[in-house]
Design goal:
By secondary structure, the chain is an alpha/beta fold. The protein is built from nine helices and ten strands. The structure holds adenosine-5'-triphosphate. The site of adenosine-5'-triphosphate (ATP) has 11 residues, from helix 1. Pfam families: ABC_tran.
Amino acid sequence: MLEIEGLCSGYGESLVLRSVSLTVEPGQVVCLMGRNGVGKTTLMKSIMGLLRSKNGVIRYNGADITRLPPDKRAKAGIGYVPQGREIFGQLTVEENLRLGFESIGSGPIPKRIPEDVLDMFPILRDFLKRRGGDLSGGQQQQLAIARALVSRPTLLLLDEPMEGIQPSIVQLIEEVIASIKAARKTSVLLVEQSLEFATAIADHYYVLDKGTVVASGSASELSADEVKMHLTV
Ligand SMILES: Nc1ncnc2c1ncn2[C@@H]1O[C@H](COP(=O)(O)OP(=O)(O)OP(=O)(O)O)[C@@H](O)[C@H]1O
């Protein structure tokens, strides 16, 4: 469903991604790994269209989306939770969630926040009228993921969703990703370094180094040695 071939991308004159090729199949959870600064966020931004590709092709459900702007990619079904969440602190939780409706590609805008999304993150239901800025970091991360889910994306991009979050919420987010996978309606491409997560939940992994894919394979076969080789400094 997502096919990237020979993607080159970067900032201004500086090239960060050098001919990256990667595939996410329908219903898969794919883990993107790599040390700091190797280009994981740059890849996420390039898939979402926030960075213009210098070379290569990005296809989504068979269509070439390489030159589409971010809003069109969102309407095509790609949801994105950036690193650092980027929720609106002055808006309430409910208003933040409603912003997710703007990415709905076709059909009527729902009047209410979908119950199944609130069921995944019960704290958000309790806090619907609270300002986003008053939530803890872990609650804001839940809000950011829920906001991406209200538009019913077919591909969800998560950039380090577990970073800097307390263990109980890490577990909740892992359960949510597992339940998204079980429902088989949304594929997930996420930046995550944990070997435990990758082997337990992901189907496939890619390791980036200096802007290129240096290892990839079935997540169940990912070994501690491989992680040590590619991910420790
Ligand atoms: N806005 C920017 N302008 C110029 N260079 C940037 C910009 N953002 C990132 N870079 C550079 O691009 C390279 C890749 O950064 P990127 O954020 O994609 O890495 P990453 O793998 O996501 O790392 P991290 O785990 O630290 O988030 C780095 O050398 C970084 O300094």
